[in-house]
Specification:
Structural class: alpha/beta
Distance between the termini: 20 Å
Shape: globular
Number of helices: 13
Radius of gyration: 21 Å
Helix content: 25-40%
CATH architecture of the largest domain: 3-Layer(aba) Sandwich
Order of helices and strands: HHEHEHEHEHEEEEEHHHHEEHHEH
Oligomer: single chain
Strand content: 5-15%
Number of strands: 12
Mean pLDDT: 96
Number of domains: 2
Strand order of the largest sheet: 1-9-8-5-4-2-3
Largest sheet: 7 strands, mixed
CATH class of the largest domain: Alpha Beta
């Protein structure tokens, strides 16, 4: 096996992030304070509307749902082909995630299938922006408006993607992002909720600090709330200054890293469009891809392909197992034809800003040989 593995994904860091973390450590204020406030301000400028930072992308989804009054007895429509975080965030509120099918072209939520699963208990819909694309977002919002549903976008894959000239997160109801180690920007762990809904924003600010009301303002000024009230369930979901310090530097470098991701995806596109695999056809002028996914031909042994690529020094993945096959959520499942068939063909190949063009061509050549 080659000594140097071409990794599927990785944290792409510079000396700036390391120095920023050391600055926080030197000041010995590691909790939520100046850096978190600065990161929120920068994200607010980036999206053009308020952003609130939390400890993970899952926490962002959980708090957004809770802040939108989603809870026990409610149902939330969500595509089954997504990371478990989407489903866990819904069930954490006491609500039930209702697994829906995906569109075969975009692998995003099929709102027509979701419409069939609508009940009197349905209170929200969670489109997942798979691989950085947004699917039929206008149609999803029209469907939500018609049925008086909140829209909580799981935009974990889509940081930097634009739709009709606007950044994802810069419009719509509520958008949630992840900043974990391999996302388009990282803060080590972390996430944010973006919305114009001031009630939702304040609820998220309070709930991330165990429900302590108005504690955010105290933390940002280096103080604590000693005499306080709590009127709603909260969680320890706030972001730390260490995480925010990384995120600040990542955001400064985002434009360059976004271009690198787009160039890699375009290079893959230029080759894979002419061989017997299916790809998601994105306009990479607008989409900043988080992952690059192939759908292998019927009959190809995905596990054998993965093993042989590993021998060639190429790491691969599978994004994602359908959630309705997981034991916790299986009882809610109905047959979901397209997502089930698509899952069996999925193979994710290396995509991150540190990949060289030589790496990309090695991946392409190895897949061509194996297929």
């Amino acid at each position: 096996m080659p000594d140097k593995l071409i990794r599927l994904s990785k944290s792409c860091l510079s000396e700036a992030e390391k120095n920023a973390v050391m600055g926080v450590l030197d000041r010995e204020f590691l909790g939520m304070g100046t850096e978190v406030r600065q990161f929120e301000e920068m994200l607010t400028d980036f999206f053009g509307r308020p952003a609130v930072c939390v400890s993970t992308g899952t926490a962002a989804l959980h708090l957004a749902l809770q802040a939108a009054d989603i809870g026990a007895g409610d149902e939330v429509l969500v595509q089954t082909l997504t990371y478990i975080a989407s489903f866990q965030a819904i069930s954490a509120t006491g609500a039930t995630p209702v697994p829906c099918d995906v569109d075969t072209d975009t692998l995003c939520l099929d709102w027509r299938d979701a419409e069939k699963r609508l009940t009197s208990k349905t209170k929200a819909i969670m489109p997942v922006h798979y691989a950085g694309g947004v699917g039929e977002l206008d149609e999803i919002y029209a469907f939500a408006k018609k049925n008086s549903l909140r829209v909580i976008e799981d935009a974990s894959h889509a940081f930097g993607t634009t739709y009709k000239g606007k950044k994802v997160g810069g419009f719509g109801d509520i958008s949630c992002f992840s900043f974990d180690g391999i996302k388009n920007i990282t803060s080590g762990e972390g996430g944010c909720v973006v919305t114009d809904d001031e009630k939702v924003l304040q609820n998220v600010r309070d709930a991330r600090l165990l429900g302590v009301e108005k504690d955010t303002e105290k933390r940002f000024s280096g103080e604590r709330s000693w005499d306080f009230d709590v009127t709603a369930q909260g969680w320890r979901y706030h972001m730390s200054n260490i995480m925010a310090a990384i995120g600040i530097e990542q955001l400064k470098r985002f434009s360059n890293n976004a271009i690198k991701r787009q160039k890699i995806a375009l290079l893959y596109d230029s080759y894979f469009k002419d061989i017997d695999v299916e790809i998601i056809h994105h306009n990479y002028k607008n989409v900043v891809p988080h992952i690059y996914v192939l759908q292998l031909p019927d009959g190809v042994d995905r596990f054998l392909i993965r093993d042989k690529l590993r021998i060639d020094g190429i790491e691969t993945g599978v994004h994602f197992k359908n959630n309705h096959h997981l034991s916790l959520y299986n009882s809610a499942a109905q047959r979901i034809d397209k997502a089930e068939k698509i899952f069996e063909t999925l193979l994710s190949i290396p995509l991150h800003p540190d990949i060289t063009e030589q790496n990309v061509w090695k991946v392409i050549d190895s897949i061509r040989r194996l297929l």
